[in-house]
Amino acid sequence: MRLGPNGGGARCLDEGMEPESAEEFYARVKAATGPDGRLAVAVEEMPGWDIYPFEIDSLRMKPLQPLAAAEPVRRGEDPAECWCARPPDPGVDDRLVWSNERWKLHLDEGLRLPIGLTLGPLAHCDLPSVPDDLAGEMGRLVVAVSAAVEALPSVGRVQLAKYGDGGAHLHLFFFGRPARMLQLRGSPLLDWEENLPPVPLDVARANAEFVAERLVATVGGSGPAWG
Contact 74/168 with Cβ under 8 angstroms? Predict the structure, then answer.
């Protein structure tokens, strides 16, 4: 079954129809470009939202690039070359907010939001290959970290993201959206974030300690490396 146009009711696929290939998807996108190879800015979508951070009068899309021959190799595709197979990096562990025997939560000290955190397992896996025992605990940790971040007085909502285009070891991002700054709601948050003033390190660490205290109280584990 597949959703119909504009998210309408489901329609049946013809029996034997195969999933669309990368080349077929790209061809449909390419056919929608103009003479200069650019897609039109969808002003009726995100650029038209009141929370979109840029004025759209002079906004235009970059020309569509050719389809790549293959997905690029990510860091840690070979488990033997992943960071988890090497001795601990003091520079990374200095940013450790919380940990237990299976997971680590790190502070992103450069993020210009009230708090930015990265959660990852010690064992090597990516999201499609998380073993069942870690998957269950991951769900509980996502809930616990989210609740702790949203308890910060400077945070209105927490946003959760998983990209994985650069590294093959699972890492989940938690972004604390500033409270009552309604222009920063939704998916444009990180577009705004890059243009905000830096957060002082002592402020970022105080917020992280607040989160760590609540995590230790709810799921156990250990608090910040700098505490």
Answer: yes
Tell me the CA distances in angstroms from 173 to 18, 54, 57, 116, 163, one per residue in order: 34, 24, 32, 7, 9
In total, the chain counts a number of residues equal to 227
CA dist 23 and 68 (Å) reads 10
Mention the CATH class of domain 80-219.
alpha beta
CA gap 45, 32 in Å, rounded? 16
pTM: 0.84
One digit per residue, the tens of pLDDT, for the chain of length 227 reads 444 445 444 445 556 788 999 999 999 999 999 999 999 999 888 888 899 999 988 899 999 999 999 999 999 998 888 978 888 888 778 999 999 999 999 999 999 999 999 999 999 999 999 999 999 999 999 999 999 999 999 999 999 999 999 999 999 999 999 999 999 999 999 999 999 999 999 999 999 999 999 999 999 999 999 86
- Packed helices 201-219 and 132-150: angle between N→C axes, nearest 10 degrees: 130
According to DSSP, residue 63 is labeled P
